[in-house]
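Side project, low priority. Logging it here so it doesn't get lost.
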Amino acid sequence: MLQITLDRPGQFSSRDIPEPVAAAGEAIVRVHRIGVCGTDLHAFAGKQPFFSYPRVLGHELGVEVIEPGSDSCGLRTGDRCSVEPYLNCGRCIACRRGKPNCCTDLKVMGVHIDGGMQTLLAVPAHKLHPSDRLDYEQLALVETLGIGAHAVERAEANSNDYILVVGAGPIGLSTIQFALVTGATVAVMDLSESRLAFCRNQLGIRHTVLAGPNAAADLKQIGGGDLPTIVIDATGNARSMAGTFESTAHGGRIVFVGFFQGDLTFNSPNFHRRELTVCGSRNALPATFRAIIAQIEAGRIDTRPWITHRFKLAETPEVFPRDIAGNAAVLKAMIEV
């Protein structure tokens, strides 16, 4: 079967390998769609933390069950599923406290272990979330939505909040979807006017702010003189993340869903004066996957407008470097298997 491997930064290769054999508790699935995310782009550029080469990328997956396995978890042959790509130990303090998303020995498919850029894949059956209504592209983007949903969960937002989402890439877009559900006032800030226009036209965002010298005044105008009570930064940019300490209201909350390789510093007196709460957000919880699938099935979330580029798995070694990496026009790329 076909497998695409990122051998080193900037270079993919294709190979023919044997089909996988399921271990105890695993199902064999056929991969139909693979979403390309920031993690994949950073790995291609050699800037992804927690990463080693060579690696088979791909963790945003829409798959079909071929062999449910001995511990099928209710799965049937032919089921369409989204993959929860976070393989946790089930024993550490995080797992015992209901936070498998930040397991101390977490293995994320396509990052720490090989992922879905191949025809067939063996996956723990309990990490498959089926839907008889969603297509493979919708299912592939459930994981992306989960990242944003969990960030909003970490924000503990309600309808009285004023939420600023910084960064209108795919993770920012998923965060926006769930920020809107809270009923809060939602603003989006980005360096790209075209991405802000997408938020206005496709997501119905009333308040957008172009990052720059006038941003602080624009944010206060939206808030009736107040800064946002919650700032969720989805940029993974050190300068942007540091700036959240100045753009969050006194008593407010900062959530970092994007990250970078390096240290982040902030002014201690400003941090204490404002009594800010700072949270990291990593991955998503199993229940979040199921809730997102239900919301897409109900028509409350539509990710189809996000997809700007499509290509075949076999084309990856040529198309990814030429058309995807470093292309500012790419909002979401989808690989067809």
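Brief comment: Residues 142-155 form the longest helix (14 residues).
Revisit when time allows.
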